[in-house]
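Hey team,

Filing this mostly as a record. A colleague (T.K.) asked me to run one chain through the structure pipeline before their review meeting, and I want the input and output archived in the tracker in case anyone asks later how it was produced. No errors, nothing strange. Just documentation.

Input sequence:
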Amino acid sequence: MQGYDNSSYGDAFADVYDDWYGDISDIDATVTALARLCADAGGLSIVELGCGTGRLALPLALAVHPTTVTGIDSSAAMLQQLDRKRGDTPLQTILGDMVDDIPNSRLGVVFVAFNTFFNLGTAERQQQCMHAVAQRLAPGGSFVIEALVPEDPARTGSMVEVKSLARDRVVLSVARYDGGKQSVEGQFIEFTESGGVRLRPWTIRYASPTELDSMAATAGLRCSQRWETFSGETFNEDSHRHVSVYTPV
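Output structure:
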């Protein structure tokens, strides 16, 4: 998408993220599963890649204290929203990239939730993230990716849908799919009577669980567990989502 960069998504969605996506997954189940993996790794530090407004990082930091939890996000607007609600929660944050700015220390758990890994817009950048995490994971540590399972066959073409409709506000969802490139580009277009038009762009480069497993193997990781969700439901051929746990070989 022309003009789109690492901070575009966060800057566009920061003001509505909690309203639109605050309940998009089970926070308690996610925190419980990540805390268990942290304990298995000896209580070493946890890093969330693409922490956004702290939907997961804030409750996780409280749950595993005194283990250090660090959230990384490339959007200052997202981190500002996080700061507004953090209170005295012992969470560290980094304004930076989720490949280049991962803390250079031994980590117990690194996780990336709800398709955020796919915000890395190329296969090369996704592979670099795998390598960067693998280099920092301690023995017994885990890299956890929560993501969609791509459609098969892959969709190609355009889509326009109504996300919400009110007397003084309409939000349209517009997307363009390219199955050959494994990419989707989209905009939420918000029309309001008082504020005019607001554009909220997003783009992803998706990968199948099999491709992620291959990337992980190249980085020296293996898939040790895979669930449908953080609640632990069995992953199967009909699953539309997955939580994959990668550990050092």
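Quick notes for T.K.: The mean pLDDT is 96. Residues 22 and 231 are 17 Å apart (CA to CA).
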